Amino acid sequence: xxxxxxxxxxxxxxxxxxxxxxxxxxxxxxxxxxxxxxxxxxxxxxxxxxxxxxxxxxxxxxxxxxxxxxxxxxxxxxxxxxxxxxxxxxxxxxxxxxxxxxxxxxxxxxxxxxxxxxxxxxxxxxxxxxxxxxxxxxxxxxxxxxxxxxxxxxxxxxxxxxxxxxxxxxxxxxxxxxxxxxxxxxxxxxxxxxxxxxxxxxxxxxxxxxxxxxxxxxxxxxxxxxxxxxxxxxxxxxxxxxxxxxxxxxxxxxxxxxxxxxxxxxxxxxxxxxxxxxxxxxxxxxxxxxxxxxxxxxxxxxxx
Length: 304
What we know:
304 residues; alpha/beta; TIM Barrel; ten-stranded mixed β-sheet; 11 helices
């Protein structure tokens, strides 16, 4: 598959391509627009799903995680990185195009549709590794200047980028407690484990809200939670999200359905991890099979 075919495939899958990146409506946007429940970011942090723009400035990634359900193993469309202002304009324009599809539908919550026209949050987490975008710092600053909050989700392989980044909330995805497991689970391009450890140390002294997200899969990386606690001690994040691997998309070719833990397993794992860290189990969302551990240092809700 070449770049042109990759663009066609992503477009068919609902991605709206902008430069080197994309925006895509998620399941929870659709549910929220119809007056239904919202995603776990709403339950954890107060983010309104219908006012959230889920996007990425780059579709490229330097890992091929076994549990990733995005089409990261396809050729990347040939879009060039745009400077932040025109890129963000393009992303917000496409978000409004997505929302226009709800106009005139009898199932649309009209109050939420009106609110959705004025996004309040940008989730830089759709696909790929955002720190590979050369203007990420400027993009995050521009999001703030336009009156929106931002969550940046990174795999931690570019610590020099994260050090100067100032999003509303900075996430690191941690898939393993040691280098051997990391290489097996994430299949990195290069020797990246030391850089992840450096990013964890940066998170510890960072001024913004911090989260470490763990995707756990049965038979893959659900060893003793105390081993994860040793690595998390490098970062001392404000929050830890423990989320089940979901047997979706491309991951189905790499992992079996048996790798998907039940919510009860996730809760038990999170509680044991919290005990090892000295964090409390703050809340959980059974439908998404995710639990939130809190350090207790800051309120979890942004109230958006």
